[in-house]
Amino acid sequence: MADRKLATIRRVSAVDDIPKKDRIGLAHIDGWTVIVQKEQIHAGDLVVFCEIDSILPDAEWCSFLKDHRIKTMKMAGCLSQGIAFPLSILPVYSAPDGLYISEGDDVTEMLGITKWERPDATDLDLGNKGGTSGKKKFPKWLMKYGWFRWFVRKFIDKRTAKGFPDFVSKTDEVRIQNAPWYLDKDQEWVMTEKVDGQSGTFAVKKTHKTFGSKYESFICSRNIRLFNPDNSSYWKVWEKYDLETILEYLCESMHYEWVCIQGEIIGPGIQGNKYKRTEPELYVFNFITDRDGRWASADAKALLEPLGIPWVPIIAVDTLPKSVEEMLKVAHGNSRLADTLREGLVCRTLDGKQSFKTL
Length: 359
Known about the structure:
Elements: E1 7-18, E2 21-29, E3 32-37, E4 46-50, E5 54-55, E6 72-75, E7 78-81, E8 83-86, E9 114-115, H1 121-124, H2 140-143, H3 146-156, H4 158-161, E10 189-193, E11 198-208, E12 213-220, H5 233-240, H6 243-253, E13 258-266, E14 281-289, E15 293-294, H7 297-304, E16 314-318, H8 324-331, E17 345-349, E18 355-358
Antiparallel strand pairs: 1-2, 1-4, 2-3, 4-8, 5-9, 6-7, 10-16, 10-17, 11-12, 11-13, 13-14, 14-15, 17-18
């Protein structure tokens, strides 16, 4: 069920000492830095590395954790992103014919690890007024688990499962720690602010009829399509920015079969309203069309902003630092939207085709 490799076999390249801490050290695992127990994990070891937003199972090997969701944390002045375990936690470790794993292997399913997903209001309220299917609301204590929401969407709420447009991908950027080779590219990148809100997808698609063509509209949260108008932030921004009219205009005037925008919604009730807005606002980061795919950020911004659709703040157009550690420092800074720290950066090539995020 995991869309990405949450738990993989990786090699520790180094373990740095932490001042005044004898028992723990800072391990370097690809682009990640992770605090580890020195007596358990050493430089050169293969380990099971679990990424941020992994949800670990109720198992003996991780029973010492108070919270089984893996988060970024700071300890002893060091940034720790993820968690590393010795290979002995693997069920195949003591197999009679030897160890059946190697560096790079995905052990997510083997260990029963699932991905944590930030619950949208629509995910927690499937079927209520303004929901998606008219089915009975499920207990919130179950709906907080990503695996259960996935089960509901796939096997119970069939209308929702089929609703998300199959011609676009759900929003998800690779972290720079999992793609450090991007930093080796000697080229300029567009750095935009990673806005901390609710991810939404909005699209229109031509439906060809005998007498002309019409358009089908898609209003979606990060994971599901919202069929019925409601009081959610997704429908509010759809109406506020008159997205139906604008997207149909773009589709018709530029002769596309479909056009899609994806962006972050901020405002009351969303992530504590850190940007102090009085009503929902949309900041777009993707403009996608059937012929051209994802547009370059500069071109998309120039097209959409005159039509009243805000683009995420562009922080810089520049070459990148050569190390993950330096990239993390570049990502740290103040938001362009309010007096608060930004969540990070999303970096894209000038043509918009390659990208990663740094949080």
